[in-house]
Amino acid sequence: MRAVVLEEPGPVDHLKLRTLPVPEPEPGWVRIKVEAFGLNRSELHTRLGLAEGVTFPRVLGIEATGTIDADPDGVLTPGQQVMTMVGGMGRTFDGGYAEYTVVPRSQVVPFTSRLPWETLGALPETLQTAYGSLTTGLALSAGQSLLIRGGTSALGLATAALARDIGATVSATTRNPDRVRVLADHGVDHPLVDNGEVAPLVREIYPEGVDAGLELVGTPTLPDTLAATRDQGTVCFTGMLSNQWTVRDFYPIEYLPRGVRLSAYGGATAELPPEVLQHYLDRIATGEFSAGPVHVYPLDRIRDAHRDMEEGTHTGKLVVRL
Description:
By secondary structure, this protein is of the alpha/beta class. It has helices at 41-48, 117-121, 124-137, 154-166, 180-185, 199-205, 222-227, 252-255, 274-286, 302-311, and strands at residues 2-6, 15-19, 29-38, 58-59, 63-70, 81-85, 100-104, 108-110, 145-149, 169-174, 190-193, 210-215, 229-237, 261-264, 294-297, 317-321.
């Protein structure tokens, strides 16, 4: 099979397209024939040497979409459409940047859809993280207000769509004034240009602050996101678009505004139940729901895709179609 191997951290030319043996699943694991996989900041962090606990050489990829190719226990039928994500993929065992990947059956989500594979491939990690952030991280409910910091990322656009679906009012930020229209076109009620301090802009709209904040940029903007949130509101730390996620000399009483709660969401396959995935796939198929634009690459252009991800060339999700 063809696979993308990172032998050691470094620039994009460290990503090598190799021919490897097709992996064999052990009991409790399944082999997936990969049709498409999305790119994620986690893989950029691994390539740059910022991720901990990764062993090399490694086939990257914390998600994959395709069909069951083999299940030694006979639980899942060959040909069944599935998505898989996280759980050590691309970090402690080989991930989805390959024509075949082997994963624990416990982190496989079955589904049925006639959507194009490139559309399906954009969803596993993005939909799981958006849904988990809004439910586990924020417990967002209809009628509440949400601020998304890093709104034109694939995760930001998907989260805005899910939040609107819940019945929330959404504000979202972009550092690029030319992308304000992108936010508006994807249902954001209050697009905001981020100059590093959006709390004053937010409080012009919501004098007491928003009910909930989703931090996707990282620790550089977290204090300002907290400042934009009301007393008894909640901020969920989920993303690290800035590649910075550590707060030095963290003293909670000084760092956290009075009464504002800070939570975090790290992601797990179980946070995306099969019925939730199927619900949104069906709605995408009817045109009732969109998780944002998709930009597609072949496997032999993985370096171009990683370069575009690192430079923020596109809004929306980058997907490799095999």
